[in-house]
Amino acid sequence: MITLFGQTYPWNAPEVLLIAGVAFVILLALFLIWRATSRSAATAEPLLRELGWLANRVQLLGDGQERLAGGLHHVSEAQVVSQTAMLQMMEKRLAEVQVAMGESLTGSSTRTARSLGELQQRLETIDKAQANIEKLSGNVLNLQDILSNKQARGAFGEIQLNDIVVKALPSDAYTMQATLSNGRRADCLVHLPNPPGPIVIDAKFPLEAYEALRRAENPRQLAEAGAQLRVAVRTHIRAIADRYILDGETADGALMFLPSEAIYAELHSNFPEVVRDGFAAKVWIVSPTTCMATLNTMRAVLKDARMREQAGAIRRELALLYGDVERLTERVGNLDRHFGQAAKDIEEIKVSSDKASKRARRLDNFDFEELAQTDPARVIGPQAAE
Question: How many CB atoms lie within 10 A of CB 352?
Fold first, then answer.
């Protein structure tokens, strides 16, 4: 690097090479002058002309160098201005990029916060669902405990039967845990009229055999569980017939309530002979759905019986209603006559009003000057006569 006229240039720059050429020419000229001093005067004049030409060329080279230096100065200033503008543009662009990045980061943080909030809500929902599942699992375990205990299972069936009976029958049409004359306590006694008479509904059911049937894994276990279920249901049917069908006290039949549609469907699908045994013993097997339908039929029977019991009172009420209707008809006729008489009186009043209006118009049209010229006695006389 070399510094010339306040500017720094590399060694291979055109300006540096130009200056080196000028210096070489000057040295060459001095060398020639030095040699010329040692020659004859005849050769001095051409050398002087050559030196003059060289001096002129050196002057031209100096002027070119000055112009080149000025151009380089202008180029340097333009480069500085261009660099300044480029820096300013880059700073502006950098600021815009920073603003855009800030807005993008703000939007991203907002979306991230919203997503985290939604995720938190979903997690809360999942936690609630998990709590409900755990609660339901506990309830299922409690139900299994209930169904595994005969006494608790009987209470469960009684509660379900009680809910159905309460919805289907009026409160005075049944008795829960009614005691019969033989000392047996019926889960529900429906007070039907004779015939057929009060009918018992039993809410106990043999679940062990049915559970064994569901757990069967091979044909042998399935056959053993099926035989066990047949025996259990037939035994229960005979027990209901012996305990709750009493001559002269209850109806000649009873209902065995199964609080499970699955057991009811299993019996009717795969054990129809057990259902026929129940028909033969007049013990009808009902599920929650069929029990509701049966109780609604009993409700219609109770309503019909109560209607028959109240037939006399209904006839008396109808006789009184007939008398009231006759009196009403008579009074309507009297009122109609009164309205007719009032209409006639109104017509007569209208006639009198029309006559009075006509007389008033005639009086309004009299000429009182002519009346003064006539005899007052003649004028007044006829008017008074009228």
Answer: 9
